[in-house]
Specification:
It holds the Pfam family ZT_dimer. Belongs to the cation diffusion facilitator (CDF) transporter (TC 2.A.4) family. It is built from eight helices and three strands, in the order H-H-H-H-H-H-H-E-E-H-E. The chain has about 300 residues and is mostly helical. It has two domains: about 200 residues, Up-down Bundle (Alpha-lytic protease prodomain-like); about 80 residues, Cation efflux protein, cytoplasmic domain (Alpha-Beta Plaits). A three-stranded mixed beta sheet has the order 1-2-3, covered by helices on one side.
Length: about 300
């Protein structure tokens, strides 16, 4: 079992534990805001299970029907998590409106807040770990799960503050007002996550900084060639696909041209983890005098 899969399984366990804690906090207090917070954790459990399934499927090797592998399935999980974040925000807004119309002071607020704070701390620690490991493993599903948990932490923080202020001041409207503001923040987070995930599904090029590094590697390791042009890049989960045309002198042998390609490929793989490179060799008559001019 690889590390990414173990983390995904851990996310399911943590999500279930946090849900149990938040349901306990709601049971003690009867707070509608804490109930809304628990509802979002139900979404967290569903999202964690979806991410686990996506990561497990994306680890399957390439086959005849999927020659480029299955890593892109992680973007579907990320899109689903973004949608679930939006659903959670709408549910919270609904509960906040109900609480505003029918305000109610919470019972036993201190024990409930302590339990909710423990659940929030657990979520925050796990979100930080997901971000760190997701970026290392280049896993959109893990990074998306981290974003999801951050939204949950923000929600829980707003709920804790709201319930605490209600207990201290007796102003019952504070609780639903803060819950509504937090829900709007979650909507923004979910929309951003869905945009990024759709970008992966639409084969967006790599970010400008990485593209500059790729061009530099080709340029400095292409000695003997004339130029490289028509470079195309895209991400697919943990993989980065790099394609370009390499123009060589017409009299160069196939073996010599292949040696240049091998040198460039080795340098690119050392620079870009998970790089999959395709180089189309062309004679000098095909030069376009633009793109990456090799040295």
């Amino acid at each position: 079992m690889n590390r990414t899969l173990r983390i995904a399984i851990g996310s399911v366990v943590v999500a279930c534990a946090v849900l149990a804690l938040k349901l306990g906090a709601w049971g003690l207090t009867g707070s509608v805001a804490l109930l809304a917070d628990a509802l979002e954790s139900v979404v967290n459990v569903a999202a964690a299970v979806a991410a686990l399934a996506a990561i497990r499927f994306s680890a399957l090797p390439a086959d005849a029907n999927h020659p480029y592998g299955h890593t892109k399935v992680e973007y579907f999980s990320a899109v689903l998590e973004g949608a679930l974040i939006v659903i959670a925000a709408v549910a919270i807004l609904h509960e906040a409106w109900g609480a505003f119309l029918r305000p109610r002071a919470p019972d036993a607020p201190i024990p409930g807040l302590l339990i909710s704070a423990a659940a929030t701390a657990l979520n925050g620690a796990w979100a930080a770990m997901l971000f760190r490991q997701g970026r290392v493993a280049k896993s959109p599903a893990l990074v998306a799960a981290g974003h999801h948990l951050v939204s949950d932490v923000v929600t829980s923080g707003g709920v804790i503050i709201g319930v605490g202020l209600v207990a201290l001041t007796g102003q019952l409207w504070i609780d639903p007002a803060l819950a509504a503001l937090t829900a709007l923040n979650i909507l923004w987070s979910g929309g951003r996550l869905m945009r990024e995930s759709v970008g992966g599904l639409m084969d967006e090029a790599v970010e400008p900084g990485l593209l500059a590094r790729i061009r530099s590697v080709v340029s400095t390791n292409g000695e003997g060639a004339i130029e490289a042009h028509d470079m195309r890049t895209r991400h697919a989960g943990r993989l980065t696909f790099i394609e370009f045309h390499l123009v060589v002198p017409g009299e160069m042998t196939v073996e010599a041209a292949h040696g240049i390609c091998d040198r460039i490929e080795a340098a690119l793989k050392a620079e870009v983890e998970g790089a999959t490179i395709t180089i189309h060799v062309e004679p000098e008559g095909k030069a376009k005098h633009r793109g990456v001019l090799v040295l």
